[in-house]
């Protein structure tokens, strides 16, 4: 499938909160229920366990599980495990974890297409017996040549007219392991002149001497996707088999198998457009390459577009589901703007994340006129609107503010601290900068300030203090590591490269900045992995799922407070 690019495709949705977009599948399902064609619907999500799920899969999960939820039906999780060489138990586990994390639960047990291998084999034999399948000995190169092209008809294979008996014998010997990988295949006998390439005697079975994670060494022939998918749907009583548009051309083949085999049900296939997101890779193969070649740390690296990456980054399941809703479900390909996903997570965290203060680049401040040894326990609300209670913040003589909140020679309109200037410390007093202490190189290493005891919770008489900055107490604050993540790709369409280039050339070299020695307010010391916060003025953060622990927190920046990539 040729993928639309960010430059030429219609934008699937504008920035900000769009109107509720349509889902063309709902009326179809509704009509099938109304007409009595189905009394209960069954959908399925059919991942290949050859990588971790990415944001595109989230769309498919939301569509399939969403329809079942809306119409009171079932959704199955079925691993499409016909390619053992590329599959792995790690992926099987991760996929289940991610589906459940998104908030969905499949009906019944986890299913595997490999459970149907016996039935599929019997059906392959049935096709041979009907004269509708044959064993073909063409090499892959010859087969390609015989297949023709979109503008050139295919040619019949010289092996097409083998007798039923010979085909049965050869197929049995394929199964018995007599031949090497690629030596022979089983093909359907349909039409080498069909304008639809998928109908030009497609492969049903190939030889692969590979150990399978579910079936062990039982098989050395494996059915391919097309021969597996529709029949598995039929076996499971799937009513609506929903996939992405690149399978539209496979639908006649899907139908052909159902029409020519004694299947117990006749599901219908519907296609919708893939989710493409700018600045983002949605191909497992390329994501795997990023991991294998160590451009990122792991499949769940917070910069990855995998669901487990988004999870570690701090995205909530609700934000991803809302995003998938906002995008809509239709048949027109487009590229969705990343700002829409970021809107969705900001929108969620704005309401649900408690506020806290964390100084990312600490600069010590000594309040010269504050009594030594004195500490005041200030109470600040955890959230400006929601009722989340309060946290206490000790105010003492020594504090930290952010280095960027003090400037010797500030530009016009600067609202933070400057020599002789005043600023309010969030939830606390107004302070004035009296003196900057510098090191030998002239860098400011400490500020001497004075506070106005009359300004707790009110403005000083007759003076207007415009700026409010965040701070933490020096002693009571907790040291932490903060990881500032940015987009992994600097180009809106990472797959589009200069001639001969690779998508790797578009990696953003500044996608991760690790800050050590940050200081967080005391209430953050006990943060549990995955606790989310808004660090005032800095963005939304999440305690890292793997590396953070109470007492030694590590925070990942999920997203900045505002869109800084927008025009
Ligand atoms: P990839 O191209 O990343 O390898 P895939 O389509 O091969 O993805 P599968 O494991 O076969 O991955 O996908 C499971 C389901 O998810 C399929 O029904 C597929 O159509 C759907 N899906 C995959 N990518 C997207 C996407 N970008 N948008 C919507 N659905 C998707
Ligand atoms: Mg696939």
From TrEMBL:
Keyword Nucleotide-binding: yes
Binding site for ATP: 48-50, 54-60, 244, 274-275
Keywords tagged on the record: Aminoacyl-tRNA synthetase, ATP-binding, Cytoplasm, Ligase, Nucleotide-binding, Protein biosynthesis
A Gene Ontology biological process term: glutaminyl-tRNA aminoacylation
Residues annotated as domain tRNA synthetases class I (E and Q) anti-codon binding: 468-544
Catalytic activity annotation: tRNA(Gln) + L-glutamine + ATP = L-glutaminyl-tRNA(Gln) + AMP + diphosphate
Enzyme class: ligase
Subunit structure: Monomer.
Entry annotated with the keyword Acetylation: no
Protein name stated in the entry: Glutamine--tRNA ligase
Cellular component terms per the entry's GO annotation: cytosol
Motif ('HIGH' region): 47-57
Domain called Glutamyl/glutaminyl-tRNA synthetase class Ib catalytic: residue spans: 41-347
Organism this protein belongs to: Pseudomonas cremoricolorata
Compartment list: Cytoplasm
Ranges where the Glutamyl/glutaminyl-tRNA synthetase class Ib anti-codon binding domain occurs: 353-452
PANTHER family in UniProt: GLUTAMATE--TRNA LIGASE (PTHR43097:SF5), GLUTAMINE-TRNA LIGASE (PTHR43097)
Name of encoding gene: glnS
UniProt-annotated binding residues for L-glutamine: 80, 225
Short motif ('KMSKS' region): ranges: 281-285
EC number: 6.1.1.18
A Gene Ontology molecular function term of the record: ATP binding
Family classification: Belongs to the class-I aminoacyl-tRNA synthetase family.
């Amino acid at each position: 499938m040729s993928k639309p690019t960010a430059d030429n495709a219609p934008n699937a949705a504008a920035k900000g909160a769009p109107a509720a977009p349509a889902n063309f599948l709902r009326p179809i399902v509704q009509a099938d229920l109304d007409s009595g064609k189905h009394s209960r619907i069954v959908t399925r999500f059919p991942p290949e366990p050859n990588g971790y799920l990415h944001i595109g899969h989230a769309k498919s999960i939301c569509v399939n599980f969403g329809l079942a939820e809306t119409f009171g039906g079932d959704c199955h999780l079925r691993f499409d495990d016909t390619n053992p060489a590329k599959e792995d138990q790690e992926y099987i586990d991760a996929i289940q974890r991610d589906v459940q994390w998104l908030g969905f639960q499949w009906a019944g047990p986890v299913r595997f297409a490999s459970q149907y291998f016996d039935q599929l084999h019997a059906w392959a034999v049935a096709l041979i017996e009907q004269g509708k399948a044959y064993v073909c000995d063409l090499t892959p190169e010859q087969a390609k040549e015989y297949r023709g092209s979109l503008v050139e008809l295919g040619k019949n294979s010289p092996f097409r007219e083998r007798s039923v008996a010979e085909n049965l014998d050869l197929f049995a010997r394929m199964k018995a392991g007599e031949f090497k990988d690629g030596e022979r295949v089983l093909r359907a006998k349909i039409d080498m002149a069909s304008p639809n390439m998928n109908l030009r005697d497609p492969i049903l079975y190939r030889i692969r001497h590979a150990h399978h994670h579910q079936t062990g060494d039982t098989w050395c022939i494996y059915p391919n996707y097309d021969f597996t998918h529709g029949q598995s749907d039929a076996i499971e009583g799937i009513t609506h088999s929903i996939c992405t548009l690149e399978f539209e051309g496979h639908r006649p083949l899907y139908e052909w198998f159902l029409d020519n085999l004694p299947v117990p049900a006749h599901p219908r296939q519907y296609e919708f457009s893939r989710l493409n997101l700018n600045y983002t890779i949605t191909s497992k193969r390329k994501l795997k390459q990023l991991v294998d070649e160590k451009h990122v740390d792991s499949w769940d690296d917070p910069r990855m577009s995998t669901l487990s990456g988004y999870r570690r980054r701090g995205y909530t399941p609700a934000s991803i589901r809302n995003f998938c809703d906002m995008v809509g479900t239709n048949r027109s390909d487009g590229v969705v703007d990343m700002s829409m996903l970021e809107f969705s997570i900001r929108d969620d965290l704005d309401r649900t994340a408690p506020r806290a203060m964390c100084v990312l680049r600490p600069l010590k401040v000594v309040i010269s006129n504050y009594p030594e040894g004195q500490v005041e326990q200030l109470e600040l609300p955890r959230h400006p609107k929601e009722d989340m209670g309060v946290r206490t913040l000790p105010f003492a003589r020594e504090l930290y503010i952010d280095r960027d909140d003090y400037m010797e020679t500030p530009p016009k309109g600067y609202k933070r601290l400057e020599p002789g200037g005043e600023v309010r410390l969030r939830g606390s007093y107004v302070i004035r900068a009296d003196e900057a202490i510098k090191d030998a190189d002239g860098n400011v290493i400490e500020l001497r300030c004075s506070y106005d005891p009359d300004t707790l919770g009110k403005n000083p008489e007759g003076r207007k203090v415009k700026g409010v900055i965040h701070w933490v107490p020096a002693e009571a604050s907790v040291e932490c590591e903060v990881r500032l993540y940015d987009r992994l790709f600097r180009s809106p369409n990472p797959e589009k490269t200069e001639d001969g280039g690779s998508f790797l050339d578009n990696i953003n070299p500044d996608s991760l900045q690790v800050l050590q020695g940050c200081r967080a307010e005391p209430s953050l010391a006990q943060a549990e992995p995955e606790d989310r916060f808004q660090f005032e003025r800095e963005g939304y953060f999440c305690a890292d799922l793997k590396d953070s622990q109470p007492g030694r927190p590590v925070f990942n920046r999920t997203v900045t407070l505002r869109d800084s990539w927008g025009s």
